[in-house]
Amino acid sequence: MQHFWDQPLSWGTAAIFAAGAVGVLAFVLFFVTYAIYFERKVIGWMQYRKGPNRTGPLGLLQSVADVAKLLLKEDTIPKKADKGLFVLAPVLAFVPSFAVLAMIPYSMNLQFADLNVGFLYYIALSGITTIAIVVGGWASNNKYALLGGMRSAAQMISYEVPLVISVVGCVMLSGSLNLREIVESQAGYFWQWNFIPQIIGFAVFLVAAVSELNRTPFDLPEAESELVAGYHVEYSGFRFAFFMLTEYVYVYAIAALTTLLFLGGWNAPAPQLDFIPGILWFFVKFAFIVFSLFWIRATFPRLRVDQLMGLAWKVLLPLAILNIFLTAIGIELMR
Amino acid sequence: MENYINSYVIVTIFLVLGIAFPILVLSLGRILRPHKPTTAKETTYESGNDPVGDSQIRFNVRYYLYALMFVVFDVETVFLYPWAVAYKQLGLFALMEMVIFAGLLLIGLIYAWKKKVLQWNSI
């Protein structure tokens, strides 16, 4: 992709970029299909069950069958719902989740948009999904949906603050917001990856990221036992599928960002292992993060809502700000 | 310069594709899925009971307080990022400035904490 960047823009290069974007979309859809399959499998194994194993060999076609089912389901829109907003919400949720993927570098030579704002681009766009969730909850004109939507908004904006501030430490160490330069600054042995010098930032980022994804133990917006399904109670068929898809596309984005910001991106754990292509290292770390998300889901019970908000403002935010000053003092001492 | 323009083109392509994909799939679904609405199907879901009253009520004021706190700290991050990118060139003086700036905001956080804004009491 890289050498097309420096060529003057023509229809040819634009077509290549468009083909790349379609490739990313196809890859992400493949990822989502099998992430859902593995999530069910992994949680099944952790609970001494088998997980899906009937559709296709080893149940491999289970998610495909689910998608086909959702596509063929009748799409009901409640009479009291605000029809325009109801239809808009799933699309509004999906668009930023996909646009975010434009700036993720997979290896030294495979990145789509080379944005100097890097991480800020992610933050700016992922905020729009919060609006989509509130719109979905409001437009449904359903009590569960409204409560779920409002809780979701409160949770997502609360956890966005520590998420954003925890990354400042990484930015200070590399002196750039560009994700490729952040990865380059982590080259060398694995103890030079940001997760060791930035251990507080890493911990805050992980907790805040799991919460931003609305996953267990922070899945209060869709707490099944009290809110049925949260903001998407009234959605059926493929509109529901788009909310689900958005959630998993963000899993993809967060796993990639964790890898890039804290786990050295495509760098090998030791320079001696450089003969293995970087993209492989990237996806090994990426898969580990995705697995950890499933693992967390199978392990922890759900928090109470007051504990959830208390954690964001009273624990994570002070820790994230402390991390910035510790990093600054560290840089001063190293000078 | 080309790099700069091309990056914008790529972001636009992702954006357009992100909009086109749901529209395409949802209109494809319209051909495939059945459409037989009845009044029972169109009622609002409320655990099997007939829905009572309107749902689009006023929110609890607490949500607005959290939104205000969010705005305060999000604006802080807007200042933090340029500072962090340039920190290695700026040195100790910039650090002191940031200590004062973050200190002022932390006083605000402590104030909100003491005022029990961060206390979640019902719903």
Automatic annotation (TrEMBL), chain A:
Question: EC number(s) for this protein?
Answer: 7.1.1.-
Superkingdom to which the source organism belongs: Bacteria
Listed transmembrane segments: 12-37, 85-107, 119-140, 161-179, 191-210, 249-269, 275-296, 308-331
Answer whether the UniProt record assigns the keyword Manganese to this protein: no
User: Which reaction does this enzyme catalyse, per its entry?
Assistant: a quinone + NADH + 5 H(+)(in) = a quinol + NAD(+) + 4 H(+)(out)
| Keywords linked to the UniProt accession | Cell membrane, Membrane, NAD, Oxidoreductase, Quinone, Translocase, Transmembrane, Transmembrane helix, Ubiquinone
Keyword set includes Calcium? no
In the record, what terms sit under GO molecular function? oxidoreductase activity
Q: How does it sit in the membrane?
A: Multi-pass membrane protein
- What single Pfam family name could you report for this chain, choosing any that match? NADHdh
Q: Which subcellular locations apply to this protein? A: Cell membrane; Membrane
**Top-level EC class, please?**
translocase
Q: Which family does it belong to?
A: Belongs to the complex I subunit 1 family.
Complex formation: NDH-1 is composed of 14 different subunits. Subunits NuoA, H, J, K, L, M, N constitute the membrane sector of the complex.
Function comment: NDH-1 shuttles electrons from NADH, via FMN and iron-sulfur (Fe-S) centers, to quinones in the respiratory chain. The immediate electron acceptor for the enzyme in this species is believed to be ubiquinone. Couples the redox reaction to proton translocation (for every two electrons transferred, four hydrogen ions are translocated across the cytoplasmic membrane), and thus conserves the redox energy in a proton gradient. This subunit may bind ubiquinone.
What protein am I looking at?
A: NADH-quinone oxidoreductase subunit H
The gene that this protein is the product of is nuoH
Automatic annotation (TrEMBL), chain B:
Q: What is its main location?
A: membrane
A GO molecular function for this record? oxidoreductase activity
Which residue ranges run through the membrane?
A: 6-28, 63-84, 90-113
Specify the domain of life of the species encoding this protein: Bacteria
Compartment list: Cell membrane; Membrane
InterPro entries hit by this protein: NAD(P)H_OxRDtase_bac/plastid (IPR023043), NADH_UbQ/plastoQ_OxRdtase_su3 (IPR000440), NDAH_ubi_oxred_su3_sf (IPR038430)
The UniProt entry, under Pfam families, shows: Oxidored_q4
Q: Which reaction does it catalyse?
A: a quinone + NADH + 5 H(+)(in) = a quinol + NAD(+) + 4 H(+)(out)
Please list the coiled coil stretches.
none
Keyword Cell membrane assigned: yes
Arranged from A to Z, the UniProt key words for this protein are: Cell membrane, Membrane, NAD, Oxidoreductase, Quinone, Translocase, Transmembrane, Transmembrane helix, Transport
Role: NDH-1 shuttles electrons from NADH, via FMN and iron-sulfur (Fe-S) centers, to quinones in the respiratory chain. The immediate electron acceptor for the enzyme in this species is believed to be a menaquinone. Couples the redox reaction to proton translocation (for every two electrons transferred, four hydrogen ions are translocated across the cytoplasmic membrane), and thus conserves the redox energy in a proton gradient.
- Its recorded name reads NADH-quinone oxidoreductase subunit A
Q: Which gene encodes it?
A: nuoA
